Amino acid sequence: MNSPAQASPRDATPAMSALGPDHADRRLRRRYAAERRFRALGLAAILFSGAMLCFLLFDMAANGINGFKRAELTVEMDFTTGVLQVDPAQLEGPESEGLLEGAGLKDMVSLAAVRTAGEIAGAELADTAWREVGRKIAADPGMLNRKVALSVPVSDDLAAAVRGDGDPVLRKEAARLAAEGKLHRAWDWGFLARGDATSPQEVGIWGALKGSILTMLVTLALAFPIGVLSAVYLEEYAPRNRWTDMIEVSINNLAAVPSIIFGLLGLAVFLWLFPNWRSAPLIGGMTLALMTMPVIVISGRNAIKAVPPSIRDAALGIGASRIQVVFHHVLPLALPGILTGTIIGMARALGETAPLLMIGMRAFVASPPDGLTSPSSVLPVQIFLWSDEIDRGFVERTSAAIIVLLLFLLAMNSLAIYLRNRFENRW
Amino acid sequence: MTTYHELDPVEAKISARDVSVFYGEKQALDSVSIDIATQYVTAFIGPSGCGKSTFLRTLNRMNDTIASARFEGEIKLDGEDIYRSGMDVVQLRARVGMVFQKPNPFPKSIYENVAYGPRIHGLAAGRSELDAIVERSLKRAGLWEEVKDRLSDSGTALSGGQQQRLCIARAIAVDPEVILMDEPCSALDPIATAKIEELISELKGNYAIVIVTHSMQQAARVSQRTAFFHLGKMVEYGKTSDIFTTPREERTKDYITGRYG
User: Fold this and answer.
1) What b-and-e string marks burial along B171-183, b requiring 16 or more CB atoms within 10 Å of the CB?
2) A239 touches B: beta carbon within 8 Å
3) B100 vs A328: CB contact, 8 Å cut-off?
4) Which of A305, B20, B107, B112 lies 20 to 30 angstroms, CA to CA, from B241?
5) What is the domain partition of chain A in residue ranges?
6) Crossing angle for the helix pair A105-122 and A168-180, nearest 10 degrees?
7) Whole-number average pLDDT of chain A
8) From B92, B100, B173, residue closest to A314, measured CB to CB
9) What is the ipTM of this complex?
10) Cα gap A204→A68, rounded to integer Å
11) Chain A within 8 Å of B82 (Cβ-Cβ)?
12) pLDDT for A120-158, tens place per residue?
């Protein structure tokens, strides 16, 4: 920066006299050209990454949108015949499902399907179809006195046929039913409310999403306070000596350790201490907290270091104690930087798969976790598991799960950025 | 080795005896002894690195924040040794306020800047009392008229001179007995400097004021006592008029006539 600026006038003065004003002009033009080239290159880089991002998002959305849908058959149900003998008053309770099964609802739904769609396609209802009908009856008991048309999920094979895959006989049937308007793909809002399942028609993301949320809460609750306190202690209190140097080097190294090592640590230590909590969000969160902590410590230390010493002097000078200096002045000023580091650490933790595989979070868990200690999956592991499935129906579901993961990430980051701006605007 | 001019006997607010300060191996201050009274503004002058700021910072123990600093000697505030073990540094700094070289208001509102000290020391019982302290302090610092309508604006949005007066208001809000000023005008333009000097003259008598300055004109204008420091030693101490007109030491004479510094 300095040397060319000093060199150019010295070069230019004799050159001007020897080579005339043309020479200086040429130099100037070259400099402007270099400037323009650099700007164009920068713009090209931005456009390239923007295009890549658009491609990714478009591809994901195009595939993933169908992941939020499933194939459903419209079935005509006639309850007026009085075949289904149940007391509407009893449908409120938790036993309603058993009650309806006992009354023969399952067979009734199967029969109705065959009547609507014929022998071949009618046999291809999802196993859970009658349960969904049961839930609809429980929600609206008045249905029992009417003829109604209900949409029920079909089996994986028929769903594949709707996409144009699989058995040719079923494909023909599916085409016929679709033309008649009886078979269609409908928004499957249950996807956001159900847990994992073996059939792509019946899977849901809520189990993994809830697992991820719980895991992240544990990670944040552990890594943020411990990380910030460590950063404050190391910057504001710790003496500079060999020990603190060693701690600093260790923390920097820790931030670079491959995540699977943390998984092994979690397996060896946390699961040894709490063997009953295998696959639990609590253990997952603890493992990820180990990984996130160094990132928070490093960014926290940098943010604290960036607070001007004059602010500390000012506070000390009017008689603030060390802890008042830290909590009234240094931390509020450093908080935006600390939050940035936390976002980066948490985003990395959210997308982490390897360490969670080590502590058993890859198990098939059908029901969403009830709490921090019940077995659970998390979004990235769920995506990994679904992408491994043979059934083609999982391809779209995987894309949908990726969209959910990205949206969750986006929500988390937006919250953090909102908080950061709030703290920055406090004065 | 210090040359003391004859002075009227007055009660010393601060009395320092044989104060030496070391930064690691390096000795920054060599047995400085001085009495500072409330009635006068005391100026410390001398070339850069002569130890005048170091000595100033020993008076409210701000050197404690530097890990390598080591103190020898004795400093008494109202007869009480401020370096004795068990001395509460926080209380000391509330009694001995400090204004720094660069204006350093907190990045908070003007009101919060002034209210912070009284708040942490519990000087105000309620909101109205705190309001009164803030108003009184800003008035004393000559800033009230300029900021009374925008107390909630950020302190950092003020001009440099206003920021420095805000820092003075912040210092006097905790009702100190001594105010230490470390080159308070070195970052300010001449008009802002004039305002600060005027303020110092107004505050004189209520507080023992010690000012470190690079400007000999400033020392001559605002102070009644001057100490000349050189290479970690206090060379000469006396009435400002005596130091500037009839210095007894060759080094003092050379410095105030601009031969070095």
Assistant:
1) bbbbbbbbbbbbb
2) yes
3) no
4) B20
5) 66-187, 206-424
6) 110
7) 85
8) B100
9) 0.88
10) 9
11) no
12) 777 788 888 888 888 888 788 777 778 888 888 888 888
